[in-house]
Amino acid sequence: MRYLNAGSIYLDRRAPLAYFRLMAVRPILTAPDPRLKEVSREVERVDAEIRMLVDDMFDSMYAAKGIGLAAIQIGVPKRIIVMDLAQKDGEIEPRVFINPKILWTSDETVICEEGCLSVPDIWDEVERPARIQAEYLDRDGKLITLEAEGLLATCLQHEMDHLEGILFVDHLSRLKRSMALRKLAKAKRLAAVD
Ligand code: K1U
Ligand code: ZN
To answer: Is the Cβ atom of 154 under 6 angstroms away from ligand 1?
Structure first.
């Protein structure tokens, strides 16, 4: 094998294109798209194809300025979530959850204001367990167990709902949900006229 020495990095000259990846921002589905109601399927093997999908999910999530995204939101019914809850501008803390399972939820609950890239410009309060324990596979297919609270717990539960075809507005009263969906439908109609 021959290497090209570029400073301290050794590049494989046989596959120069392997070092380049075009950004792939995919469109995010919005309600009432019926695909958002699908139950996503388990990932059988965490391979290069899944990692490419994960990269596309991050590109799409960052482009939309979201803090989380489930694969079904870009039309792929696989049990994959990406998330970045970094607080400071310019920093990134990418997290990947593959085949996540909730092992435990606290009896204590919290009410948090939620939004969703698939229900744009609608925010409302949702009550969920305050703390959870979950397990999932990371980007390398390693099994991880996690205890979460605060925004991480809320966001993970919100994203895991997507894997079951549930939107945060499904947790609202029937009246609030229909008002939210009508507001979204009107915004879509107005955007179509522009
Ligand atoms: O599932 C999604 O569409 C992602 C969603 C995650 C989420 C947010 C808040 C509570 C629970 C789950 C979002 O990222 S909504 C967009 C968002 O959070 C945001 C957008 C612009 C500025 C600041 C935040
Ligand atoms: Zn969402």
So the answer is: yes
